[in-house]
Structures are given as C-alpha cells and as structure tokens.
C-alpha cells in the first residue's frame, strides 16, 4: 500500500496489537487501523477553491461512520484501497499528528489562518476514542493562537468539551454537528457507524451548556427519504430545542465514489426510488437545480417558524449559515437558488 514506507514501528512496540495491522483490532469489529507516521498534517486548500477556509487537518483517512453517501470515499482510492467497504473498514491513523502539527505551526511563516477539521473524514470517529489525537491537535492549535473549527457526527467529542471550552475563551473556535434525519431505522442503515441522531442532539446540548457555539448541518437531505415537510419540521424543531446557534441545510451531493456506493445501497433498500434518483442526479454530482430550488422553497418557511432563519442576505440552504465558517464533512456546498419553483419543475419530483 502507498503508506508502507511510513509504517510506524514505534507504535508497534508501545501498543501491541495496534501496529500496522492487517487484521481487525479487538473492540473494533471489522475495522483495521493502519498506523502511519505522517510527515505533514496541515494541508493547504488549493487556490481557487470555494471553501471558506484555507487550511485543513485530518488525522484519519477512511471513516468507520460508514455513511453510504460520504463523498470523501473517492479519496481512499489514492491509497490503493476501494471507496466502498475499504473506506469504512481500513482506517489510516496518523499517530504522530499532534507533534507534527505543533512543529508545523511553530514555523515563523505560519500566518494563523483558520484551520478546518472534519472537512474530509470525521476527526471524532470511533478510532479517536482509542488514539486520542484530538486533544493534542487542539492543544497545538491553541498554543499557536490559531482559530479552528470542527465538524463531526461523533459523540467522542464530548470527551474534549472541557478542553474546547478553555480554548474557546482565548480563541475563536467553531463546532458543528451533522444530523441528517431523526428516523433511527433509516439512520442505522444509511449511516451505520454513527451515533444515533438523539445522541448527536444531546452532544449539541452539551456543547452549548459549556458556553460554546454549535451549528447543526442538516445534511444531506435525501430526495423522497428525508425531505417531507413533516420530517424537516420535526428535525428543525429538535435542532432548535437543542440550543444550536445556527443551521445549514444541504441536499445530497453524489460525487464519483459515493455515487456508486449510494446507488448500491438504494438498490438494496429502496429500489422503487432508483429511477427518481437517476433523474435528480442525471447531470452529475449535484442535485438538479430544480430540486435544489424546490428544497429551498420548502425549507425557508420552516426555518422561519423555528426561529432558525439566517441573517438577512444569507441563505441557510446550501451555504454555511453559521458564524464560524464550518463546512460539512463529505459534502460540497451547492449554491441553491431562491427563485420560486414553477409547477412544471415539480414533475422531476
Ligand atoms: S460523511 Fe463524515 S461521518 Fe460520514 S463517513 Fe464521511 S467523513 Fe465519516
């Protein structure tokens, strides 16, 4: 594998059974951790990107949260692993991420720009409970007086709330939690490795109780599966009740890698919807603009009803409405139009 020359023999000595492994790790059924010593963990976002941040840190590659729609899946193929089951079960762990990051941030050239985490894979996926890389990463960022944001579905973050609260007194930091739906049955097959939506709402509550801001990404919204008025209304009511400081709604984005895996899931779980999804995603990764407009029209009054409407001049649908410039992992933001949907456009639905 591409990472072979960065195998971590030191960890093999200090954590027996967790070395660069080709067998599942006890306690993590079906998941194999590949421990590597990274040379760099601070990644610059390519110039010209629409992302509202310039730097990212991702201590893990692959994600045991295993969301069927995750568009980071394609990135696993760069490692000679596949974008389907391997993405869910073959997780690369940059075991030296805190030390390498600290060294990089000590450079006199470092400009203390915003660093985003959770932009590719989830930094609080289950592996973090074992490797505990994030406290060191947060500490390195705090020592370098570097503002940062974290986006996650992982309730492991609750472990670090006291640390984040301390750092938040000195630095602008942002926290976001992704919650796509409330339906436990659908969630367990759509995002089989994630904590329940209710546990994530509780995480939002705890972050807020610690005095930190916390946005919620209602993402992705899935045509026919999670986009009824009743579903969106219930979810936004729960988000409001959790004390979230902002909400962003994003329709499903199906990039290559995610597209094949998601459609395989749809064939298994809801074959009746396959033709409809083929129409909505006929032109590529983004949902058809008619669907995006339709969704925008549907969501706007619900946001107003729940007191979650963004400030004037901003859209809560398809743009980062929270103050911290957070961005959802595994999803790019399509720009949703606000134009009214004409009747003939609804034939798509
Ligand atoms: S969408 Fe996020 S939480 Fe889900 S598999 Fe991808 S990186 Fe992990």
From TrEMBL:
Transmembrane segments: none annotated. The keyword Nucleus does not apply. Keywords: Iron, Iron-sulfur, Metal-binding. InterPro entries: MJ0683-like, rSAM, rSAM_sf. PROSITE patterns: RADICAL_SAM. Gene3D superfamilies: 3.80.30.30. Residues 49-298 form the Radical SAM core domain. This is Rv2578c family radical SAM protein. It comes from Allokutzneria oryzae.
């Amino acid at each position: 594998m591409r990472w072979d020359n960065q195998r971590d023999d030191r960890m093999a000595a200090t954590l027996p059974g967790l070395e660069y492994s080709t067998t599942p790790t006890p306690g993590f059924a079906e998941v194999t951790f590949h421990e590597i010593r990274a040379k760099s963990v601070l990644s610059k976002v390519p110039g010209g990107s629409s992302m509202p941040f310039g730097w990212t840190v991702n201590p893990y590659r692959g994600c045991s949260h295993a969301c069927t729609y995750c568009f980071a899946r394609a990135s696993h193929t760069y490692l000679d692993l596949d974008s389907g089951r391997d993405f869910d079960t073959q997780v690369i762990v940059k075991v030296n991420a805190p030390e390498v990051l600290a060294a990089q941030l000590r450079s006199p050239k470092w400009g203390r720009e915003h660093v985003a985490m959770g932009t590719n894979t989830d930094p609080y996926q289950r592996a973090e409970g074992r490797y505990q890389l994030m406290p060191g990463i947060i500490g390195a960022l705090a020592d370098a007086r570097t503002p940062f944001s974290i986006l996650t579905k992982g309730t492991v973050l609750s472990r670090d709330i006291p640390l984040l609260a301390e750092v938040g007194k000195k630095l602008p930091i942002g926290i976001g939690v992704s919650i796509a739906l409330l339906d436990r049955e659908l969630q367990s097959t759509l995002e089989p490795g994630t904590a329940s939506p209710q546990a994530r709402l509780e995480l939002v509550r705890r972050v807020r109780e610690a005095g930190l801001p916390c946005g919620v990404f209602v993402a992705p919204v899935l045509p026919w599966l999670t986009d009824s008025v009743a579903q969106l209304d219930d979810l936004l009511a729960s988000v409001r009740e959790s004390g979230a400081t902002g909400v962003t709604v994003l329709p499903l984005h199906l990039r290559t890698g995610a597209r094949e895996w998601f459609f395989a899931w749809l064939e298994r779980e809801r074959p009746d919807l396959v033709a409809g999804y083929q129409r909505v995603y006929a032109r590529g990764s983004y949902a058809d603009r008619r669907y995006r407009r339709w969704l925008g029209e549907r969501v706007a009054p619900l946001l107003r009803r729940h007191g979650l409407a963004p400030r004037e001049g901003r859209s809560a649908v398809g743009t980062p409405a929270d103050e911290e410039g957070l961005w959802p992992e595994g999803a790019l933001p399509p720009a949703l139009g606000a134009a009214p949907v004409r009747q003939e456009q609804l034939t798509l639905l």
